[in-house]
Amino acid sequence: MKHRLAEAQSSNTSLVDIGLPVFNGEGQIERALYSILNQTYRNFRVLISDNASTDNTRDICERICAEDERVSYRRQSVNLGPTANFNAVLDLAQGDYFMWLGHDDWLSERYIEVCVEKLNKRPDVSLACGESVYYRDGDESHRGVVMQLQQESPQERVAAYYSLVAENGTFYGLMRREQLANRKIRNIMGGDWLVVASMAFLGKIVTLPSISVNRGLGGSTVSYSKVAKTLGVSKFQAVFPHAVTAFSAFREIAWRDPTYSLNRTDRVRLAWKCQRNIRLRNDSSLFDLFLRSQRLVRHSIKKRLIGSAT
Questions:
Q1: What is the pLDDT of residue 227?
Q2: How far apart are CA 194 and CA 76, in angstroms?
Q3: Considering its fold, how many domains does the chain have in total?
Q4: Residue 39 pLDDT more than 50?
Q5: Do 213 and 246 reside in the same domain of the chain?
């Protein structure tokens, strides 16, 4: 039976938009969608952006749209790349709260309810999420870092985030849409880190232990080289992912992102601390980066010389 949007709105007041970008997700998207439709919280919309899939994704999505009018489906005429597709669903959002969900991920049934309750009660919180549980081939692999960033200082929250972040399941938490407005994920390694860091500056981040976002491991997440290939970025970013992310974090905080409403000195000071936290956490000292860069240059020159000789 087709679900009526008015019935959902009568039971909950805050409208939640869930952005679901997908490309060739026929094996997983049905599970993701039903994990949303089976939520205890009812006042939501699902915004699907299909990145010109070549499998049966369209048929699955259109069937579920016919079952429940809270689900909307938009198909891109060409593949925009994953980052642009993630941004596309955010552009469609108009609700009070917003979250992303990967097409190969799924939510515990009270995920939205618990997050909305926290955000409604705590105006000082900008992002509420559940624990991140990672699965490989159907079996639980590990659990992600639990982010509890409740320091009073915005600078301390951002620095603490960059000292802890790894897989960044926090990115799939529920956020205040107005704070995300006009914010774009950058098409670089760690672009999602930059988004969460800016949310940490705007408010506190809490992880709620009673709920979880369940994430499938595989596909483009297998290696940095596959991530770089999926994003369409240079090989340099695949070889030095944490150095690239550290530089990007420095640039965003020091001068690029207007979210960081600090004087110039404090912005640079925070930017330096954050890039250092990223490098130290990932054993990426400046000297190590210099040596690895030299090896990469020598290897590239050698490869070209051999190629020209043949």
A1: 87
A2: 26
A3: 2
A4: yes
A5: no
Q: Do 136 and 27 reside in the same domain of the chain?
A: yes
Residue 170 within a domain: yes
d(CA 290, CA 283): 13
**pLDDT band at residue 226 under the 50/70/90 scheme:** confident
pLDDT value for 220: 46
Q: Which of 191, 221, 251 is the last residue of a domain?
A: 221
- Kindly state whether residues 110 and 251 are assigned to the same domain: no
Residue 33's alpha-carbon distances to 58, 108, 193, in angstroms, are 13, 12, 25
Lowest mean pLDDT among 135-149, 227-241, 253-267: 227-241
Residue span of the structural domain in which 298 resides: 231-309
User: Are both 36 and 177 inside the same structural domain?
Assistant: yes
- Whether 255 is covered by a domain: the verdict is yes
Looking at residue 10, its pLDDT comes to 45
